[in-house]
Each structure stands twice: as C-alpha cells, then as structure tokens.
Specification:
This protein is mostly helical. It has ten helices and six strands, in the order ααβααααβαββααββα. It has two domains: 198 residues, Up-down Bundle (Rhomboid-like fold); 43 residues, no CATH class. The strands form three sheets. A two-stranded antiparallel sheet has the order 1-2. Helix 1 crosses helix 6 and helix 5 crosses helix 7. The longest helix has 47 residues. The radius of gyration is 32 Å and the shape is elongated.
C-alpha cells in the first residue's frame, strides 16, 4: 500500500529496534508497582472523564498497563507478547513493526472521546496476536502450559469474542475492537484479498470438477427397449437405428428385433 510505504519511509529514522522488549519491561514494572498500590493501574488507563479533567498522561500511559493481575498469568502473557512481537519484527522489519504498533495506538486514541470510555492496551495486544496468527497459523502453543492448541484456532476464538463485544458491548468497547481490527486489515489487506481470490478459484475449480463428475455419471448410451446403459453395464455395446424417428439407441440384443418407431 503506497500510504504505508510512505509512512514507513517517514518513520525509518525514528524506529526503535526490539521495541517489544521495552513494552514488556514497562508493563512488568507497572505490574509490580500495582502489587504495592492496587489503584496504580487505574491511574494509567485511558479514561474519558480523567483525560478531560487534565490527566493528559493517560494518553500515553495506557499502553503500559499489564495484561493481567495474576503473577503466573502476567509472566506467561508478557513472555508470549515478547515472542509474538519479536517474530513480527523479524518478518516485517523494525520499521514496519513499529508502524503497526503506532497505528494501533493512534486508532485507539479517539476512543477516549466517547463519554464513559475506559480503555487499556488489551485490543492493541489483540491486534499483535491476530497479526502473529496471520504469519504463523499452524504454530502450536500449550494453553495453560497443558493443552496444545494451534494459533489459528485461538485467533478464531478471539474474533468470536470480538464479535460478541461488538454485538453486546458499549460504544467505547465497540470502537476499541474496530480500531484493533482496522489495524490488522490495513496491514494485511493484500493477503486478505489474495485469500478471497484463492478461495474463489478453488470454489470455481470444485464446481467445475463437480459438473464434470456429474456429466461422467450421466449415461451416453441407453437402450430404448430394456433401459440398459453404458453406466449400468460398461461392457454393453449400442447401436442407433436410422429407421426410427429420432435415431434411438439399442443394445445389441434389441437392435435387430425392435419395432421401428
């Protein structure tokens, strides 16, 4: 996409290598600070009323909120986020990966304009997961360190959750989901279009093969007298009578003793 290419060139001098490590570090520090002060995370969230009351730091600090409040889960989630981010940076390069995170951040910011909005970085992290799933759909992880699950099925589950949020959530939640999805579509629109084209070609090919099989299943020769055909008896031979109206077919047994039509 030309727009993304231009943005990528503009961002190149400012791109931060291994930016995922910094995000994981800050989110980890935030988690430990929250253990001492449980209200600390709330002071970082992107909250409409607080931002418009002058707490402008929330426009940045919300990306530093930890993904969980349980020590075991937060360690696993931060490790997996680092793993996903590193993999995406290896595939895209530092600049494009930085741009992906930046777009996710910028798309999420306007959500604060919605009265009553309370936003964390969960949907930005969700877009990173969907991007990872797009690159590595067959990658297998162990859910809760026990259950082996392929990433593509977790991505499908996440999309299902997003759909539920869109159908039942408030306006701010719907906007946050939309920001996450739009970010993924923006960076994967070519792959998405190509997937639809590939599926369309496969469907067309399947229909063509199905029609060919149907045509093969239809008999070419059917005896007018007994109804035997080249499908029911592949060894049977048929002749056509030029003296009958329509030149019907007959098997060898009936071609010589049938009544002309």
């Amino acid at each position: 996409m030309k727009l993304l290419d231009r943005l990528e060139r503009s961002l190149r001098p400012y791109a931060i290598p291994n930016i995922t490590a910094y995000l994981v570090l800050f989110q980890g520090v935030t988690f430990f600070m929250a253990l001492a002060r449980p209200d600390f995370v709330e002071r970082l969230l992107l909250i409409h009323d607080k931002v418009f009351a002058g707490e402008w730091w929330r426009l940045i600090s919300f990306v530093l909120t930890p993904p969980s409040v349980h020590p075991v889960f937060v360690i696993f989630q931060l490790f997996f986020f680092y793993f996903m981010g590193t993999a995406l940076e290896m595939n895209w390069g530092t600049v494009r990966y930085n741009l992906f995170l930046l777009c996710g951040y910028l798309f999420t910011l306007p959500v604060v304009l919605i009265p009553g909005a309370i936003v964390s970085n969960i949907f930005i992290s969700g877009s990173v997961f969907l991007a990872f799933a797009a690159f590595y759909p067959e990658y297998q992880i162990r859910l809760y360190l026990i259950i082996p699950v392929k990433v593509k099925w977790l991505a499908f589950l996440q999309c299902l959750v997003y759909l539920i949020v869109v159908l039942t959530g408030d306006l701010a939640q719907k906007a946050a989901v939309l920001a996450s999805v739009v970010n993924v579509i923006l960076f994967f629109h070519r792959e998405i279009v190509q997937t639809f084209k590939t599926q369309a070609r496969k469907s067309k090919g399947n229909m063509t093969r199905a029609r060919a099989r149907e045509e093969e299943a239809q008999p070419r020769h059917v005896c007018t007298t007994c109804g035997i055909s080249d499908v029911t008896d592949r060894r049977a031979e048929f002749r056509y009578c030029p003296l009958c109206t329509g030149t019907p077919a007959y098997c060898l047994e009936h071609i010589a003793n049938h009544v002309h039509r």
